[in-house]
Amino acid sequence: MSDAASQASPPPNPLRAYAAVTAAYWAFMLSDGALRMLVLLHFNSLGFTPVQLAWLFLLYEVAGIVTNLAAGWLAARFGLAATLYGGLALQIAALAALAQLDPSWGVAASVAFVMAVQGVSGVAKDLAKMSSKSAVKLLAPKEDGGLFRWVAALTGSKNAVKGLGFFLGAALLALAGFQAAVWGMAGVLAVILLAVVLFLPAGLPGRMKSEEAWGGWRSKDERVNRLSLARMFLFGARDVWFVVGIPVYFQSVLSDGTPDGRREAFFLIGSFLALWIIAYGAVQAFAPRLLGGKGQPEAETTRKAILWAGLLVPIPFLLAGAAWLAGEPSEGLTATLIFGLLVFGFVFAVNSSVHSYLILAFGSAERITRDVGFYYMANAAGRLIGTLLSGVSYQVGGLPLCLATAGVMAGLSWISARRLRGL
Q1: 3-state secondary structure of 334
Q2: Is the pLDDT of residue 137 over 70?
Q3: Would you list the domain boundaries of the chain?
Q4: What band does 51 get if pLDDT is binned at 50, 70 and 90?
Q5: ∠ at Cα 181 (175, 187), nearest 5°?
Q6: Distance CA 305, CA 361 (A)
Q7: Phi, psi of 74 (to 5 degrees)
Q8: What region does 105 belong to: left with phi over 0, alpha with psi -120 to 50, or beta?
Q9: Which of 37-46, 160-169, 197-206 has the lowest mean pLDDT?
Q10: Count of H helices and E strands in the chain?
Q11: For residue 9, what is the DSSP state?
Q12: Which CATH superfamily is domain 3-418 in?
């Protein structure tokens, strides 16, 4: 049978394949969320500045940019199962390496080591994400809005699991300590990798024609390219406040500097970020009903994507204004931030969900791993920009500048989404 024919043939049981891919993705994102909280809270408690904290995550995002370009080609060459297994294995290796961190190392050595480990984790995350999302395109039923429903269920459930990971990471840090938490996650993930290898059904698609070359990483479809640009700024708008700004602000407000105070702050910060991510995932899963995706023309979904991108823009600017007027941290400001960021999360989740549907709707089955890889490269670029600006803006101008920068990024996402009109 030719490569082209094998690509067109579905696996024996698409639902079983979808369930196995989803389970593997859940396990990965649980560890990914926990690892992010462990690193952020552990090093913030050691006295790292906001810019130094941002540096810890920069190589993670740079690795995501490179990986998404290469991952599409690798999956097309070797199949989606191979890249999924590779992502899980690399995450285990990253956790095992991070457990070797020595508290006696200086700041420069610690930052360099953690950056390198986070880079490996970034490669792992985007291998797993690209594999899972591409598999949905090839496994989902083609009729009755099946693609929108399947991708919304995968993405929404993934973010709920990642939110649980944020809480798990904070709780493990408070209860077990840094090294024990990292080793425990590595062991659990190793068991899950073995289970996925044993139970993932044969025939998971994804390979392309052998004559397809490395070149052509940028999509030939202008809709994919413009959607990718909107995605880049969308995730930049989130990570500007999410990565460093808000966690550092909350820790300064909630912790009194004592060991018990730090542990309590870890739980509270982890709980809020977990709630935010879980609620975000729930909204993503609900988005097809909210947007009327069943049997809806692609042009109408695109119009709604532009509308919801515009609705996001004023929210961070209003929160920046509230932070600027308050001047100093207060209970009133903290309550306003919590409410406002949950509203931001709702609108952001709808935007993210409709993007995840449109990239699979726009992408062609013949090169879906390449189009999805390019799109998630833009996603990683947005996180990289947001991560860097999160530390810099918070250190230079505090919370007001941090949130205003998020507003600028949201505005650029809306402008980019508007360019989809008429394509």
Answers
A1: helix
A2: no
A3: 3-418
A4: confident
A5: 140
A6: 13
A7: -65, -45
A8: beta
A9: 197-206
A10: 14, 0
A11: S
A12: MFS general substrate transporter like domains (1.20.1250.20)
